[in-house]
Each structure stands twice: as C-alpha cells, then as structure tokens.
Amino acid sequence: MTSFSFPAPGIPPVDVVESQLQALKAGDVRMCFRFCSPQRQRSIGSLQTYEAEFRRSPALQPLFACSRYAIIGGLALGDRRFKCRVRVWPAGSSSAPFAVASPVLDYAWELSLQELETA
To answer: 98 pLDDT exceeds 80?
Structure first.
C-alpha cells in the first residue's frame, strides 16, 4: 500500500483509504478531505464542516490522531465500488504487556469510482 499526497485517476482504492488514514493519523483533516470524492465534498459543503464533523462525532473522533491503524481487508463490490475494512487503535492505546488498552475499533470504508469532472 502506498500513501499519496494528491488524488489522481488510477490510484487503487486501498491506496486512497491508506492516504486518508495516514492524513487522519497525522491530524491532517485537510488532506483527508482532499481524497474525498467530488460528490462527497459537495455533500459535506466545506473543509470546515468536515473538520467539525470529526470533532463532534463520537464515531469519528477515534480516527483523528489515532495511535495506529491497519487495513485488514478489501473487497470489490462491482466494477465501480469497493469496501475496505479498517482497524483503528485510538490515541492513548498501548500494546505494552498488561496495559489497559483503549478499545480497538473497526470501520468500513466504502468507495466508488467517480467520473472525472471538467470545469
């Protein structure tokens, strides 16, 4: 898997997920938003709205600045759709022996191939 700085046609879906997760782990919501599809960006409205969504949603907060993550599976759901299973260790998690660890969380990332938009 490879992490990219900018979205581009032909990037494999698992690499899009990797890029978004790497950005979130680093606390870079702007980079994660960059990899959202144009359709998703329009539905969100703005980067500020997207960031606010992460900050107020208990389901999304563990993704932001997480300790680590792992893409544990991917499945093509057709020619244009893909689903990826992601495991996240929230910030503060520890893998030290006998440590009381934060819960490990699993997420399902769903992607679809979008048509290129022309200006």
So the answer is: no
